[in-house]
Amino acid sequence: MDWGLKNRLAKIIKPHDRRGVMLAVDHGYFLGPTERLEVPRKTITPLLPHADSLMLTRGVLRTSVDANFPVPVVLRVSGGTSIIGKDLSNEKITTSIKDAIRVNASALAMSIFVGAPYEHESLVSLGNLVNEGEEYGIPVLAVTAVGKELEKRDARYLALSCRIAAEFGAHLVKTYYCENFEKVVNACPVPVIIAGGPKLATELDALQLTYNAIQAGASGVDMGRNIWQSEYPVAMIKAVKAIVHQNVKVKEAHEIFLKNKGGETPTKKEIKEKKPKKAKAKSA
Ligand code: 5RP
């Protein structure tokens, strides 16, 4: 591996433990103003000091992240579809390598859609992106996307997708956690990190998912909604980070979450939920 590529990758997957905490805030590229990411700067700023790297589009990077803050950027360079469009798999590369270099990206990220109508196009795009990345020493993160078909997330399908991504030269793969996740990791010769997926019922569930993934061999997370859709996002990222980098168990991570949530200001929604309801005046 070339020096530059190795050096950039080391900013994302830390060499001391070969793990990383990537904060995903790229959702708007096809979902628009996702809940709790309506004003990206507001969501991102308090979390920045706790993330090893930040995954996002150039639009949100330029408008909503302070360029003086030294967080490594994983730049989403694919897109072209929306949640209300015909087919989420019809993505193309939308950001040039020149612009990625201009914003000092530490890695390029794009989605592949194995088994979907535009499988071929997304895989060829991955091959081409790796060619460009290798030329300039920039690693590529392949995201094994499932579009709206969340039920696709089983070990057989995800192992197939991750392996294909690695065969095409991706330096890092992001996928979903599933039962028998070891099969996915073992069949993939490059580091695998997990997305959190839609917000789970509780923070404990998301910490359990993180722990299970790490135990099964994941190299970390590229997590979004289960962090910033929590009422206490900073406490949540700290707890996730403790699992990833300090090998803490779920109980301890949850304690970290509970301890840290004390220091965070609750959101308007939470204040509203906690307010005792006024008793209805009885009619005379
Ligand atoms: C969407 C993405 C997201 O970054 C990814 O799904 C991670 O976010 P979350 O943890 O919210 O699922 O790549 O295609």
Write the layout of secondary structure elements.
Elements: H1 3-12, E1 20-24, H2 28-31, H3 40-44, E2 53-56, H4 58-64, E3 73-76, E4 78-79, E5 92-93, H5 97-102, E6 105-112, H6 119-136, E7 140-144, H7 155-167, E8 172-176, H8 181-186, E9 192-195, H9 203-215, E10 220-223, H10 225-228, H11 233-246, H12 250-261, H13 268-274
Parallel strand pairs: 1-2, 1-10, 2-3, 3-6, 6-7, 7-8, 8-9
Antiparallel strand pairs: 4-5
Helix pairs in contact: 9-11, 9-12, 11-12
The chain binds ribulose-5-phosphate.
Order of helices and strands: HEHHEHEEEHEHEHEHEHEHHHH
Which fold does the CATH topology refer to?
TIM Barrel
Strand content: 15-25%
State the CATH superfamily name: Aldolase class I
The Rg value, from CA coordinates, equals 19 Å
The major beta sheet can be summarized as: 8 strands, parallel
The top-level CATH class is Alpha Beta
What's the helical proportion of residues? 40-55%
Strand order of the largest sheet: 9-8-7-6-3-2-1-10
Which ligands, by name, code or SMILES, are bound? ribulose-5-phosphate
How would you characterize the overall build of this protein?
The strands form 2 sheets. The protein has an 8-stranded parallel β-sheet. The chain has a two-stranded antiparallel ribbon with strand order 4-5. It has a single domain (3-267), classed as Aldolase class I (TIM Barrel, Alpha-Beta Barrel), CATH 3.20.20.70. The chain is built from 13 helices and 10 strands. With 284 residues, the protein is α/β, with parallel strands linked by helices. Helix content is 42%, strand content 15%. The chain has helices at residues 3-12, 28-31, 40-44, 58-64, 97-102, 119-136, 155-167, 181-186, 203-215, 225-228, 233-246, 250-261, 268-274; strands at 20-24, 53-56, 73-76, 78-79, 92-93, 105-112, 140-144, 172-176, 192-195, 220-223. α9 packs parallel to α11, α9 (203-215) runs antiparallel to α12 (250-261) and α11 (233-246) runs antiparallel to α12 (250-261). The protein binds ribulose-5-phosphate (5RP). Ribulose-5-phosphate is lined by residues 24, 26-27, 55, 111, 143, 145, 195-197, 222-226. The site of ribulose-5-phosphate has 15 residues, from β10 and α10.
